[in-house]
Amino acid sequence: MPPPHDLIILITLVLNEHSAQNNTLNPPVYRKIKVSSAINLELLNDKVIAPCFGWTRNYHTYYFRTANDTYYTQKDTDAADARSWLSPSLLPQDPYAGPKRGLKPENATLGDLLKKVGDYCFYNYDLGDGWIHRLSVEKVLSEEESDGGVVLMEGAMRCPPEDGGGCTRYQEDILDLYCEQKKNPNNVENARELAEACFEHRGGVNVNGSFRPGEFNLLERKLALAEALGSRNSTRNSVKTFAFPICNGLETAYIGQISVVTKKQDDRFGGFASFHETVNVKPDPRDATLCNQCGNPNDLKACARCHSAFYCSRECQALHWKAGHKKKCKKEMVAYEKYQDELKRNKADPNRFGISGEVILQRRYTPGKLRFKVGDKVECMIGPEQWGTGRIVRCLYREDGWPKSKESAPYQIKLDRKTADRVGIPPKYEPLIYSDWDDDIKVRKLPDAEMEYVD
Question: What is the pTM of this model?
């Protein structure tokens, strides 16, 4: 077998996986990565594509499809989209599956699908919605150039929202409006329609705040990639399950696993929702994981102390030790010993359920990154389907009597006289309101030429 080479892959969202035409979304939503051809498809999905794009790990199922219609389909998952949308001929456990149908992704590598420049395959994430990605080879690095590591090189546009309807709907509901707004920023009706469409996704699993389709933060995605590489593989016997109101009884966890409950604030439900997920505590298999530091799948060795972190070289181990494993290693040792005890007794820990995880608060604004400053002229929402104009007079505003637990408003706005008259505020009163979100649905900057401000 020839040694594995690194590939530079362009991953782009497309409208249709059965068309040979260039049918990328407009504007293109893409990531360019360097990755080893030896990475298996399950790890590519879980620890590379998901964090690089911004998808939620262990939430939906997927398949890879080659140009000659060979399918590599995720197995052993309780994801709702797998149960509802996978045909029996695509399931790996189907004994009647044909030679090109339902192969196991963990038994195939990226190099099995893509070998030379121009080769391509498709990756369909969330079989209910259909987020179709086209993976194409831009360059095959030489053996000397290849180090096996994963690198996110560049990208454009933020990840679409989970459960957002798939590529075609995203193009029609969001991106078409976004393109029109870029082309004609003075189209107020289009701007309002775009803001409303984006605001609907504020509580999305991978959003948690304002959804702005044009945003792409390379550093943020690189940090997500590093976090994924440094974690255990996702387990599929119990994927993330959404529940509102918060409830228990959704857990499935076996030896070497725990069930974690994450609480997520979402004003669409008037409080908190919960996500239940089974998480591996046991170490990854040595032949089915990645270097915790760089993502190399080749020639891995386990940390001699905790047996749970894997590295391709001493250099990577030293870097990962400084980056945070030094603080985690002792805790990982305890988890490993506990797992060994479970194996010895052939019995899972009875306290493995309902482990409290992260509490995620909804982000209505980022204090150090407000979009407007005092004096900016804005269009603001003054009621249901009603807008007016004014100017920012204060940032991080608080009213007298607000409890300390209540978050400051990002902006206080003084309405112009025309708007104040329209809503019935007499001239003797200052027409002051506040916005509770730093979002286009509530407050949007207008070109100076579009408004006359009269105090």
Answer: 0.92
Residues 197, 200, 203, 205, CA torsion sign:
negative
**Distance between CA atoms of residues 444 and 377, nearest Å:** 9
374 in Cβ contact with 394 (< 8 Å): yes
> For 92-122, what is each residue's pLDDT tens digit?
544 434 444 578 999 999 999 999 999 999 9
Mean predicted confidence (pLDDT) in 219-227? 98
243, pLDDT greater than 80: no
Among left, alpha and beta (phi > 0; psi -120 to 50; other), residue 54 is left
Distance CA 178, CA 193 (A): 10
On whether the CB atoms of residues 279 and 352 are closer than 8 A, the answer is no
**pLDDT classification of 452: cutoffs 50, 70, 90:** low
Smallest Cα–Cα separation from 265: which of 402, 358, 396? Answer: 358
Write down the H helix ranges in 1-102.
41-43, 50-53, 80-85
CB neighbourhood size of 75 (10 A): 18
**Cα gap 155→218, rounded to integer Å:** 7
